[in-house]
Amino acid sequence: MFRGAEVRAAGLSLKGDHGWAYRDVALHAGPGCVTAVTGQAGSGRTSLLLTLAGRMKPTEGTLSVAGHTAPKAIRRVAALGLVDGVNDLEKALSVGEHLHERSPGLLRRGRQEARATRALELAGLDLPPGDRTLVRDLEREQRIRLGIALALLDEPGLLVADNIDVGVTADRREAIWRTLSDLAGLGLTVVASCVEDAPVPSVHLPSRAAAPKAAARGAGAVPGGDGGDGGDGGHEAREEHEGHEGEDR
Questions:
Q1: Are 230 and 248 in contact (CB under 8 A)?
Q2: 48, 218 Cβ separation under 8 angstroms
Q3: DSSP state, 106?
Q4: How high is the pLDDT of residue 209?
């Protein structure tokens, strides 16, 4: 169903005004694979995900996604699931409103409604595309799954999702990993970040005292691109991602 993107990174590093967000990361993720990026807050997990998705430009190293090396080209094949502080869901909007905002007219045409229904099913969120439940009333797991569903509307080759184990019980974490593995089984390449150990191949980022929340602020973010980390990113991401949020939310 998905044309998974091969991801290759070598010596990937990102430096900001306050030091290195992450350094010397090597990663290879093939189509149909799930890879976890683990580490504590401040380790650069989110900044790495945004780099892999073409929303931030690395300071050093090489990156190719589906054969593309330019961030703009990578963004065409990569989609963001929920990334805290970058494409946060609007708490006052409903599930249906997010889908409508993500793709105007989505709920007015049968074919597009079917796509939305399928995306919700694949994300494991048992709600109809016109659901009126407000985001503020969703549990954390449901918000994560809604973020995945919105990203799937792009039919991406690479899906990145952040903090998938934060605020979620152990059994529900396992359920989210199963969903991501099911998506990989359909050909999608998935890279997801978490704090705890993951049941999939992982890249671990060590905590760095020199990488505070603002480490990636001004760290070569693509103009109008994304940048944020639930622990180490900046806000350069917001401008582009808000443009993308017309697609993502």
A1: no
A2: no
A3: G
A4: 45
